[in-house]
Amino acid sequence: MKYGLRTPSLKKSIAARTSGRATRAVKKDLIPGYGTKGRGWLNPKRKVYNKVYSKTTFSWFDLFK
Hints:
Blueprint: E1 4-5, H1 10-30, H2 44-56, E2 57-58
Parallel strand pairs: 1-2
């Protein structure tokens, strides 16, 4: 598990803002319930991992808030 500052990646940041948006829009139209809040219980192991990761790491964007 990672602790502290997340390593910034310009390539991943751009990819998340462009291609992911179209993919999410298509999935939201095709899959009922996709993208709604409260779906984390479907995979409890991933939910716990993501919760701990979010609490123990921070982005360099957070330094400027």
